[in-house]
Amino acid sequence: MRDTLYIPLRPWPTLGVVAALALLPLAAATLGQPFYVVFATRVLIYALIATSLNLLIGYGGMVSFGHAAFVGAGAYAVAMLMPAGVASAWLLWPAALLAGAGFAFLVGAVSLRTRGVYFIMITLAFAQMAYYLVLSLRVLGSDDGLTLSNRPSLGLVDLNRDTTFYYAALAILLAALAGMRVLLNAPLGRALQGIRDNETRMEAIGFATYRLKLLVFVIAGAAAGLGGGLLVSLNGLVGPNLLNWTQSGLLMIMVILGGAGRLLGGALGAVLLLVVEEAIAEHTIHWPLVIGVVLLAVVLFAPQGLSGLMRRRA
Amino acid sequence: MTMLRVGGLQKHFGGVLAVDDVDLELAEGELHAVIGPNGAGKTTLIHLLSGALKADAGVIVLDGRDVTRLAMHRRVRLGLARSYQITSVFPNITVLENLALAVQGASGRDDRDRARTELGAVGLGARADDLAGALAHGERRRLELGLALATGARLLLLDEPMAGMGPEEAARIVDLLSALKRKRTILLVEHDMDAVFRLADRITTLVDGRVIASGAPEEIRRHPEVRRAYLGEEAPQ
Ligand SMILES: Nc1ncnc2c1ncn2[C@@H]1O[C@H](COP(=O)(O)OP(=O)(O)O)[C@@H](O)[C@H]1O
Ligand SMILES: [Mg+2]
Q: Could you report how far apart the first and last alpha carbons of chain A are, in Å?
């Protein structure tokens, strides 16, 4: 029996990639480039965030242009709680997740009443409202943002060590990807993709499409919030720009580059975009132009993104 | 037992009264045809009954329960499903997956065995693993019908299931609907008068949104107003 929606687990390639990622800090140390560990951690966190947006855009057909707001909600939750005396990542990161989920619930409950261009515009409007709110609030540091004196603690392991933080982020990303695969292969995932392809028909065969979409929107918001919490924990600082629409746009570009509607699309897009930025940003101030050209090429010649190209080779 | 009772149903689009004070009653197990010229309001009627559109006025009672304000998916869960005049299936997944989705929508469970049964019922068993988008027109129309059937609905609203079909394909649909008769209550909108007069227990004629006649096929065949407005020379003798 053919199962077009089922996402198989390819054990050997998966194991290979995971092993390579696990060895990366060792390689960086050998090369005498410890800075790369922090950079790679940032890439992993963005991979998590872009993956959550891919769930919305690629699998749910919900083209949200306000995803940065949920990242911001998680980041500011951590940045507010730490000075208030909460030091444990076991509390801070779930709090970031809840902040993202809660804000996504509010935004989704309203926005998901609309479709198409209206949905894009209303999610953007909500995110910009959040951006200006943060910008104007003194307790949130206004345009200076907030800084943290050190990283959260995670029980026995010390997150102040870059390598440890890297492994924590890697574990979270892998768990999120595994969870997303389970979700997409479950009846909920099939329903989600049905809604993406033909929402009206889905209602006509009995699906409560609004509630299903809201549920997935909240899940994606939670993952984005967690990503925000991880970012501020890593960097020790957060500013309003994290919520700006350019950030939402960047996340969308990651999803398109990597491959919308592919399990690894968000992650691959994050890697590609951040590595390219890192490689060329110091040589030219025109790097956004380069990204623009690459994006155009992808849309024209590889509409399935990077993961689509890799699938074709295989 | 009354399966569906509709009273004073009304819907207008701007200045056009698409459905104008329509009363309708379907007994359990009845096959009730709705006929009328293009633009008579037949599709709008199905939109209203299924919940795709909100009525401006009137009541819709399904199995003794007022469903006038219920969302479309809630009505499906109560046993009312519709098919579309313009085929609306999921082209990127297989035929079997299409039907499994419909089973899941109504029951909450992804039950492939039941989906396979429904697949046989619409004669698409050989096409189970083909993409729905690859089906020929007649097959797609049967899948369209199959999606409504697979919800397990007791009341089916079928919008021109034979639209665009040749005589052979149309005959298959007639057989299919004959097999369904009595097992499900059916409201059938159809232009193929041979099919309508062979299948229907009762017929309602809609013109400009209004019911101009409703009754047994023989009555409708002879009804002067129906002949003038719609049947004309088309009426099978
Ligand atoms: N969404 C709509 N907006 C405006 N007018 C509509 C709409 N849908 C149907 N109509 C009008 O309502 C009338 C009934 O249409 P319809 O129900 O599709 O008729 P039928 O199915 O009997 O051919 C027609 O005059 C049609 O132009
Ligand atoms: Mg019609």
A: 22
What was the ipTM of the complex prediction?
0.94
Kindly give, in sequence order, each residue whose CB lies less than 8 Å from that of residue A76, ignoring residues fewer than 6 positions away: A99, A134, A140, A146, A228, A232, A238
The answer to whether A71 and A247 have CB atoms below 8 angstroms apart is: yes
Q: Number of C-alpha atoms within 13 angstroms, CB side, residue A62?
A: 34
Cβ neighbours around B138 below 10 Å, total: 18
Residues in chain B: 237
**What is the identity of the amino acid at A77?**
A
Q: Is residue A93 packed enough to be buried (19+ CB in 10 Å), middle (13-18) or exposed (0-12)? A: buried
A4 touches chain B (CB under 8 A): yes
**Interface contact A194-B90, CB threshold 8 A:** yes
Helices (H), strands (E): how many in chain A? 14, 2
Separation of alpha carbons A69 and A130, rounded Å: 7
Q: How far is CA B52 from CA B21, B104, B178, in A?
A: 18, 20, 27
CA dist., res. A295 & res. A253, Å (int): 7
The DSSP call for residue B181 is: B
- Name residues 172-201 of chain A within 8 A of B (Cβ): 187, 190-191, 194, 197-198, 200-201
Give CA angle at B104 (B72, A10), nearest 5°: 135
Q: Which ligand is nearest to the CA of B44?
A: 1
Q: How many CB atoms lie within 10 A of CB B10?
A: 16
| Distance in Å, CA B208 to ligand 1 centroid | 10
- Write the pLDDT tens digit of every residue in B58-93: 999 999 999 999 999 999 999 999 999 999 999 999
Q: What is the pLDDT of residue B236?
A: 52
Residues B187/B155, Cβ–Cβ less than 8 Å: yes
Q: Tell me which amino acid residue B45 is.
A: L
Domain boundaries, chain A: 11-245
Under 8 Å CB-to-CB from B100, ≥6 apart: which residues?
A190, B110, B111, B112, B115
Lookup: tokens for A283 = 């040589």
Q: Following DSSP, what letter does each residue of A138-159 receive, concatenated?
A: GGGTGGG-EE-SSPPBBTTB-T
> Which residue's alpha carbon is at the smallest distance from atom 1 of ligand 1?
B13
Neighbouring C-beta atoms of residue A78, cutoff 10 Å: 28
For the domain spanning B2-89+155-234, the CATH number is 3.40.50.300
CA nearest neighbour of A42 among A228, A184, A214, A300: A228
Crossing angle of helices A116-136 and A89-111, rounded to 10°: 130
pLDDT for A298 equals 78
Tell me the two tokens of residue B70. Answer: 């219920």
Per-residue pLDDT tens for B4-14? 999 999 999 99
